[in-house]
Amino acid sequence: MKKKVIVLSGAGISAESGIQTFRDADGLWEGHDVMAVASPQGWQEDPVLVLDFYNQRRKQLLSVEPNLAHQKLAELEVFYDVTIITQNIDDLHERAGSSRVVHLHGELLKVRSSVEPTYVMEWKQDLNIGDLCLHNSQLRPHVVWFGEPVPMIEIAAEITSQADFLIIVGTSLQVYPAAGLMSYAPSTIPIFYIDPAPKQSVELQARPNIEVLAARATVGIAQVVQSLIEECKNK
Fold this sequence. Notes:
Layout: E1 4-9, H1 11-15, E2 28-29, E3 32-33, H2 34-37, H3 40-45, H4 47-62, H5 68-75, E4 81-86, H6 92-96, E5 101-103, E6 106-113, E7 120-122, E8 139-143, H7 153-160, E9 165-169, E10 191-194, H8 202-205, E11 210-213, H9 217-233
Parallel strand pairs: 1-4, 1-9, 4-5, 9-10, 10-11
Antiparallel strand pairs: 2-3, 6-7, 6-8
């Protein structure tokens, strides 16, 4: 039976493909106040702005490709049972070939009913006012906004609790509830934390078997994947 590798990924892994990180140091996302484009309040106040914002993000996503970090994680499935739990709303993990991806914050290439959250559709074109679901209600981006529950968090916690290895990449471990997932991992498993400027949280410091790689995602993931493959082959 293959050992389980659980990957917690964030915006930093997609940044090298050209996807803007969610929030810059000034609190803006592509020049917008995040609350204006990523909250229920913003949606109520100016749905046209919100739809246009995600239309632009969708076009951007369709113009880029997975990078080496995405590809290496997909390759790891030959040797391990790999599940990726991502905060990202892009599909770059899937396009690289990863078969088990849990999206905590939704998916940019999907939309859903604004009155029935379980009514979800694939969507690659622009989404406009007047695009309605079967309930005759406006469709909205299938994205978890600030102030909304994260429906996949309990499933992600259960998956993390079964890890034999944990890889954390492209996330600052500052945004909850996603940042709390590491606490569900077994206390003695090896953890690889990849970040160009890693922050030593109390939770990280308390872990006995953590390896910190101060590197961008493509470099760090290549190193970790190679190490894990060699360990698998030597057993």
